[in-house]
Design goal:
Blueprint (H helix, E strand, L loop, with lengths): L1 H16 L8 E9 L5 E5 L2 E4 L4 E5 L8 E2 L19 E4 L4 E6 L9 E6 L6 H5 L6 H9 L6
């Protein structure tokens, strides 16, 4: 019996030491009433650079938020997505390019973000030109320069 338990434990440890089949990483973006710098109505982090195949989970840390794409700022061929209010949404990004996203009720208050997938920033101008109301436009302008770095 002890030998069987030891064998199972060794097998489990060996499997855990292997890299994942896809090599994809997982990230978390929190939806916050106030971020770590004191800024109201924010995603944290608001900018991410990830690799194709990586997954981002948008977590409603504070109530009253969702996350969804700005439909005008997704790479050609990529599908827009929309999370429900107060619910996490998990998105796996397979298409390279720049994706902009917002919290629907708080976009005008500056609650927007950008995810760059891979090194292709061919649609970055769409993020710079995105029609986002109020403080969302200024926040988008702050985030656009991070892409391509």
């Amino acid at each position: 019996m002890n030998r069987m338990i030891a064998t199972l434990a060794f097998a489990a440890a060996a499997a855990a030491a292997l890299p994942s089949e896809s090599g994809a990483a997982e990230y978390e973006v929190r939806m916050l009433n106030k971020d770590s710098s004191g800024r109201m109505w924010q995603f944290e982090p608001a900018f991410l650079k990830i690799a194709p195949g990586d997954t981002v989970t948008f977590v409603p840390t504070d109530k009253g938020h969702n996350a969804e794409t700005l439909d005008a700022v997704v790479p050609q061929g990529a599908k827009p997505w929309k999370g429900k209010m107060n619910k996490p949404v998990q998105v796996t990004y397979t298409q390279e390019g720049v994706y902009a996203y917002k919290c629907l009720p708080h976009a005008a208050l500056g609650m927007v973000g950008i995810i760059q997938v891979g090194d292709n920033i061919g649609n970055l101008q769409a993020a710079a030109d995105a029609k986002v109301p109020g403080k969302g436009k200024a926040r988008m302008a702050e985030l656009v320069p991070f892409a391509g770095q």
